[in-house]
Amino acid sequence: MPLPDLPWPLLQSVAALADAPLTQIAERLRQATLPYLGSSALVIFTEDCTGRPQKKAGAEEIISRVSIVELDTLRAALSDDSPWYGEAELAGRTRSVLALKHASSRALLVLTDPHPADAENNTGLDWVTYLWSIVARRIQEKVADAPPSYLLESRAASAERVRVTAELTDLHSTTLETLLAALRSSSLDDAAARSTVTDLTAKALVGLRTLSDRTTDLVEEPVATSFERLREDLRPLTRFSGIDVEFIEPPLNGRALPGEVAHAARAIVRGLVLAMMEQPNVSRIRTQWDCDGENLLINVRDDGDALSADAPSIGRLNRRVQALTGHLQIDVMPGWGADVIVTLPLDPPSRPAGGDIAGWNLAARELEVLQHLAAGKRNRTIAVTLGISENTVKFHVRNLFKKLDVRSRTEALALAHSHGLR
């Protein structure tokens, strides 16, 4: 095809997606799809990103209200990775949507109010599907190769979401259980009304508990499931290598892994297997996982004799381990091969209050406001407690966002909690 006839806009879109950071990938995908399929908003739901499972762009009234429960319900209704048009509950009401599920990662793409950008061109959906496949793979690769700072942020955000959900569950459960007790009281003689409202409230309780369980599921992964994903990830790599790769199954009843630990563990093992396969005269590699309730224990062994703890690839893997306060040890035995042991703690380390927050250069009043934010207090309550106006509190919060390099109250809370502020 002559150069002038190449689809340059499409090629430029592909290049932009291939270079997109995770924080911008939804916006870039939306810009890439608009010439082929219009939409009011675009939402990506991916469990690969434990800290931020939603990535959104478009109409604010949609992207600010769409929930994980709605997205998970929609994904569960899709039988395969074929494009699906229909109506679904999204952002609090029924909307027309186009949904696509990525086969290997189960990531979900949703376009609201979809319409062809060119009514005479029926290829728009094909291009959108193609671009989505690039983005889904890009997300997988970015998470697999994430720097240590991403793992730390992901762990903090995951812990914060679990904490907030647990608090909401306790609050609403108490309210609903009190309501149930009142409605069951003998002082209410309208039996039919009492029965109806009791049923509705009981269902609300079940739904709330389900939401709490679902949030936990999003940030945790059974150790056996994570190990099976590792096996599937390595299958294409090992199929034609001529090397016997043995997988020793972890116990089925082991403690579930936090999402960031599961992702890091798979990336570390993939990196170790690659490094071992690049050695001459390697014929066998064995990988084994176990869990002692507090740590994920990883053991990878080979029968080569050239793996070096000083290799750059091993150094990169060790930095990932250290980002999760883990430990990596390599023992090379001439004539026997390399034995690599990795220990990854399942829980973040406890830090004394204050930690290393000195580097934030906070004024005394800003630190006071941050401590109250970390305790879950709202601006008005902080103002009353400190004896200042609510506008002054807002001023300090804006300065905190700049100094902490965060964009929302939730991110500020997660960062404060990760540094021991409560």
Automatic annotation (TrEMBL):
Give the keywords, sorted.
DNA-binding, Transcription, Transcription regulation
Taxonomically, which superkingdom?
A: Bacteria
Q: Which residues form the HTH luxR-type domain?
A: 356-420
Stored Pfam families: GerE
Q: Which CDD domains match?
A: LuxR_C_like (cd06170)
- Name the SUPFAM superfamilies for this protein: ATPase domain of HSP90 chaperone/DNA topoisomerase II/histidine kinase (SSF55874), C-terminal effector domain of the bipartite response regulators (SSF46894)
Extract one GO BP annotation from the record: regulation of DNA-templated transcription
Q: Which InterPro entries match?
A: HATPase_C_sf, Sig_transdc_resp-reg_C-effctor, Tscrpt_reg_LuxR_C, WH-like_DNA-bd_sf
Matching entries from Gene3D superfamilies are given as: Histidine kinase-like ATPase, C-terminal domain, Winged helix-like DNA-binding domain superfamily/Winged helix DNA-binding domain
MF GO annotations: DNA binding
Q: What is this protein called?
A: LuxR family transcriptional regulator
List the lineage, top down: Bacteria, Bacillati, Actinomycetota, Actinomycetes, Micrococcales
